[in-house]
Amino acid sequence: MPEEIRHRLSVWCAASVPEWERAERQIGYTIHGDAITILDRRPPAYPELGAAWSSTPLAQLRIDDPEPGRWSLYRRVSESDAWTREGPPDDDPLTLLDRVTR
């Protein structure tokens, strides 16, 4: 994944949660192959047990799907592990993330 995309994603994630809410919620991402998964992260209910923050997938960006060089946005189908494509592809993955925040 190009460094420019990683940087823009980090900025987008940080801007997605107001500063006053960041102790209770964060937006992050992971990269696996050609897919970027956007995550809603929450602190452990019992931090004294040393548990890690939980992560819930919100969306996924995939490059070269369905066309080479283009990005597609995917959303989870309810609580299953299945993903479904949402809307048309775009050349800019962060443009697609505007749909996540709506």
Q: What gyration radius follows from the Cα positions, in whole Å?
A: 14 Å
Decide which structural class fits the backbone: alpha+beta
Main sheet record: 5 strands, antiparallel
Count of domains: 1
Level of helix content?
Answer: 10-25%
Explain what the structure shows.
This protein is of the alpha+beta class and 102 residues long. The protein has one domain (3-101). It has helices at residues 3-15, 93-101, and strands at 26-32, 35-42, 54-63, 71-76, 83-90. The chain has a 5-stranded antiparallel β-sheet with strand order 1-2-3-4-5, covered by helices on one side. Strand 1 (26-32) and strand 2 form a beta hairpin. The longest helix has 13 residues, at 3-15. It is globular, with a radius of gyration of 14 Å. 14% of the residues are buried. The mean pLDDT is 88.
Concise structural overview:
The chain has 102 residues and is of the alpha+beta class. The chain has helices spanning 3-15, 93-101, and strands spanning 26-32, 35-42, 54-63, 71-76, 83-90.
Properties at a glance:
alpha+beta, five-stranded antiparallel beta sheet, globular
What is this structure's SSE topology?
Elements (H helix, E strand, L loop, with lengths): L2 H13 L10 E7 L2 E8 L11 E10 L7 E6 L6 E8 L2 H9 L1
Antiparallel strand pairs: 1-2, 2-3, 3-4, 4-5
